[in-house]
Amino acid sequence: MEQYRVVDTPHGALTYLLVKKRVKNLNLRLNRQGQAILSVPLRCPEEQADGFIREKSGWIVRNQPALPTQPLPAAMDRETCKQLLGEAVLRVYPLVSGAGVALPQVRVRKMKSQWGNCHYRQGYITLNAALARCPQELRDYVALHELVHFLHHDHGPGFYAAMDQRMPDWRQRRKALRDYVCLLEE
């Protein structure tokens, strides 16, 4: 059973989707559009669900993607996407070249759930075509993120240390990228 509910919280009125199903706990998540979805056990009273949303309203508001403050650039042709994303890789490549990373091949394709991925064994990275519509500093962040995977294949402490060293504001850029998650849906 699913229903939309509106709850007054300390952070203003919040609309969420209440889903009653066979679960043991209350499970709150945000979908890509930032909509709060609360799954609860079948016999959970709606008042308890509303109270949980009130309690977690600060987290919900902090983690919802903001709408971009500027209009999004129009979709562009594949060649323009490849050019913009290739330029991003070339801008940040000097940050890893001294560590022995060879300049990888850059592939561009539409992806629904990620901005990029690294195929370090094959020597290439793939960047999401939608990333070309994001501001340059966000394209650069994703390009560097994928290049650092040639040094550190996972998201362990070494990876984050390498990112901190090469782009100290990468966490702010990653957070700003959330404002463009709507592009993944197009």
Q: Could you walk me through the main structural features you see in this protein, from its secondary elements to its overall organization?
A:
There is one protein chain. By secondary structure, the chain is an alpha/beta fold. It has two domains: 2-63, no CATH class; 78-185, Metalloproteases ("zincins"), catalytic domain (Zincin-like, 2-Layer Sandwich). Helices cover 38% and strands 23% of the residues. A four-stranded mixed sheet has the order 1-2-4-3, with helices on one face. Helix 3 (78-92) packs across helix 5 (136-148) and helix 5 (136-148) crosses helix 7. The longest helix is centred in the middle third of the chain and has 15 residues, at 78-92. The two termini are 28 Å apart.
Short structural description:
The chain is built from eight helices and seven strands, in the order E-E-E-E-H-H-H-H-E-E-E-H-H-H-H.
Question: Structural class, from helix and strand content?
Answer: alpha/beta
- SSE succession: EEEEHHHHEEEHHHH
Q: Count of helical segments?
A: 8
Radius of gyration: 20 Å
Number of domains: 2
Uncertain runs are none
Residue share in helices? 25-40%
Distance between the termini: 28 Å
CATH fold-level name of the largest domain: Zincin-like
What about the largest sheet? 4 strands, mixed
Give the overall shape, derived from the CA principal axes.
elongated
- What is the H level of CATH, i.e. the homologous superfamily of the largest domain? Metalloproteases ("zincins"), catalytic domain
**Fraction of residues in β-strands:** 15-25%
CATH architecture of the largest domain: 2-Layer Sandwich
Strand order of the largest sheet: 1-2-4-3
CATH class of the largest domain: Alpha Beta
* Counted beta strands: 7
Question: What's the overall average pLDDT, rounded?
Answer: 92
